[in-house]
Amino acid sequence: QVQLVQSGAEVKKPGASVKVSCKASGYTFTTYGISWVRQAPGQGLEWMGWISAYNGDTNYAQRFQDRVTLTTDTSTTTAYMELRSLRSDDTAVYYCARDKSNCFDPWGQGTLVTVSS
Amino acid sequence: DIVMTQSPDSLAVSLGERATINCKSSQSVLHSSNNKNYLAWYQQKPGQPPKLLISWASTRESGVPDRFSGSGSGTDFTLTISSLQAEDVAVYYCHQYYSTPLTFGGGTKVEIK
After folding, report:
1. pLDDT at B79
2. What element of type H or E holds A14?
3. Do B50 and A45 touch (CB under 8 A)?
4. Bond before A41 cis per omega within 30 degrees
């Protein structure tokens, strides 16, 4: 079955960077893109950006443009999201999701990133 | 950016009764080239990631019970649960994928009365 498995929870200090991985299985990785969405505690969903697993093209939400980098490794069918210059309000669960024409199905289980001094 | 506004923020419905959730977009998400509405609905249960229920405003995903239905066009959309079951307790989000940045509604929490 189609599955996305993300890396484990992270605790980071303000100003640091975090890199979350998302291992895909059960489908041809390069056929779909991967989007990243985050959810702050008790809050709604916020799209961060998209990457084509076919050619690496990216589309970032403007508010993250300067701080986020999305990459993929087709040899391991893994997508990565790196967020730099972390602030306390970046504390959230970060999700990867297979992008089917910009609908998200399925989603990874989520990775909690806590930013605290 | 397209702003998605859901109503109500929460609702409590008796088991077996109908639940209706509304979603309004700040601009049309109907694409004239293919006459499709770029609107999806997700269900998120506590401690779980969201699950895609409906795409293209009204197309139910495989395996989604037929008590879930989506309707609407342009800027006004509705998710209906025709007969609420205990397992439907969740937060429901609408999502526009007409243009980037992709955006979501604020969510509607559905509970049992």
Report:
1. 98
2. none
3. yes
4. no
Nearest CA in chain B to A110: B49
Helix/strand/coil (H/E/C) assignment for every residue in chain B: CCCEEEECCEEEECCCCCEEEEEEECCCCEECCCCEECEEEEEECCCCCCEEEEECCCEECCCCCCCEEEEEECCEEEEEECCCCHHHCEEEEEEECCCCCCEECCCEEEEEC
Contact of B16 with B112, CB cutoff 8 Å: no
- Closest residue to B102, CB basis, from A102, A107, A108: A102
Residue ranges of chain A with per-residue pLDDT less than 50: none
A117 to chain B nearest CA, in Å?
26
Q: Give B 25-54 residues with CB within 8 A of chain A.
A: 38, 40, 42, 49-52
